[in-house]
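Interim report to the steering committee. The following record documents the input for Adenylate cyclase (488 residues).
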Amino acid sequence: MNKRKNQSEGKSESVDLEELLREKEKLDSIIKRKFTKKITMMFTDLTGSTRMSELLGDLAMRAILRNHNDIVFPIIKSNNGHLVKTMGDGTMSYFVDVVDAIKAAMQIQLGIEKYNSGMCETPLLIRCGLNTGLGLVEEKDVHGDVVNVAQRFEALAEPREILMSHDTYKLATENKDLCLVFLKEARLKGKMGPQKVYKALWSPDEMELFKKGEYDPAKDIYADGAVTGDMPALATDEKPADEQLTADTCQGRILVEQKGKPASTHELTKNEMVIGRSSKVDIVLPEQFVSRRHARVIIKEGKYFMEDLGSKMSVLHKGEKIYRHEMKNGDEFLIGPVKLTFQSLAMDQPDIRAQDDPDATIAFSLSRLFQIVVEENGAIIARNDLSDTPLIIGRTADCDITLAQPVVSRKHAKIYLENGAVFIEDLKANNGTFVNGGKIEKTEVTPSDEIRIGPFILHVIDPTISKPDEAHKISGFRNKVFSFLSKK
């Protein structure tokens, strides 16, 4: 009896399972028909946002993200795209038409480029990744491998790049308005074997070269140190000699000002001085928006020129991009968030800031009560203003005074003001810090002292002293100023 009952129940369960499987097939068919679509996913990412937030603060970063969104969101919508979600400093969207997706990415880069060329204080850098395939599209989200792969391509991209998969490329390659090139093969997490990576060109210069058949993906015209076609190149007989100028013949310097850091002054002691992010250049600007070799200052026939070296973010003067510009006293240039001011030391070149604002002369002098001068092989290579913020001396590019020699520690020493006097403190450097030949841990230094760090000699100077017999008078004035400030 029980055996017959069990057989009956087993048959019933078997029938129920078959019905469930049939129902599942119907549901899968409905889901596939209603929710699964062939789409092109696009991910964008604002590079360097974490560092920007640390440097600028939350409120300033919120304003930057608003500017970013004001550019990106309307472009996605105008190209028939669907913004699925934002992820802090990035976006995830999808497009039914692959060409719409690529054009949206191109317009985003052009929009960001236009924003950066204006008077924005902090330029933006965006990278884009695209992939085409089947995705499960819900009202407020998209699922599937098409999403994961698009995000992998975005992560592969450099700032200002648009990268895409082979699936995206093959559907858009016939469109004559697009300039798509094979870039490389790369391995993606979760994918078997290397994947082909393609790049969409968006800048007018690159697209023009592509249409002429002259574009070489191995030589990006916006790569660090490259020269754009629009830049007037020096003739071979104009190449400046890399020679040292003496203190008597040096007639110019560059004042570098960055938010949150003390100003630094660099004597133009060579006929060519390169500016960039690399620790190997003459004037180091350790900012992500600065190319490794961004620009240079050259001297020709007694005239000073600022010249862009094909940098990604350009050099701006009065809001306009420059390629080569003859500098006059007081000329200001922007490289990313860094302001550079040319100061002529010639007697017939007055400071234009003092002309514009009579009070500027007083403020200019007070801010230079002390300076730190760095010498190497008898030539002055840097001059830094010493303010309330200590100056860190070391080998790395993020130091206030960068001394790029192996014998110098990463963070070697610091020099600072204390009760109106200048002190230098060794930061446990491997090769030590020396004052007047003696190794020190911390000591007060005066203009008559010699500080030695490796092959470099540093001096404290008071630029307000023009003659030896004025030293006592100026020193008294300086002490009065510090006494006054300490009471405020």
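Residues 32-220 form a domain with the Alpha-Beta Plaits fold (CATH 3.30.70.1230). The committee is asked to note this result when reviewing the revised timeline.
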